[in-house]
Input
Amino acid sequence: MNYSEEWFKKFKLHLFETIDSTNSEAKRYCFTNLAEYDVICSKMQNAGRGRFGKSWVSPEGNFYCSIIVPKTSIMDKMSQLSFVTALSIEHILESIFTKNNIHKKINLKWPNDVLVGNKKISGILLENGGKNNEYVIIGVGVNLLTSPNLIENKTTSLKSEGVNFLKFEEFLDLFMISFHKFYNIWLESGFFTIRENWMLKAKSIGEIIHVNTGYHKISGKFIDIDLNGAMRLLLDDESIEIINNGEVYFEK
Ligand code: BTN
Output
């Protein structure tokens, strides 16, 4: 496969047939190599990991990838990379749907899920890497061919939405072109444009939602995300709660 030069000359690709987890491999890279801008992909994972210690079911046919980026002077803002990544995925799904004449709603669920018709098609797992946490690992899973049956989430795949099977390498190229573009926007102009674009596609802004922060469950009206990417919720007593991490539920 001839990958597009615009990303291929900056990133170093490592493509595996099978692996435990691309994020775990990326962590190992960060300890042993100069891992800046390495991209670890695999066609299958046998120990794929999701957020909150959950597993990520990873059969052949779907997309699994981890990008290693160096921490920069905007180090404390690295969680914004999940918005950068979610937007990159949203943009390629939009263009794939347009090409295939598919009219399905694509939404972004805070902080970093991509939904099609309210069903999860992609998840992102950000982790630290390196001896001094000098890297961020951005793990991305996209359901191309199949999606798991989960109790907690409705899920879908590109195939279920009517997209003919896309080869792993084709999707990888589209994803990396898109990621590279949004990553550069973020590096050059910060979170502002990313935030604006993310909010345009955000699910449930202005609606009552429920969030499990890991410490407590809280309900309120989803106002927006702040300049760091934290969610702002308007509570019944008119106070505003800032939530940095958590899992959103739309129904109780
Ligand atoms: C989530 O819980 O929504 C995040 C899922 C992230 C899954 C991806 S697949 C590629 C990378 N390797 C992993 O083990 N996890 C991430």
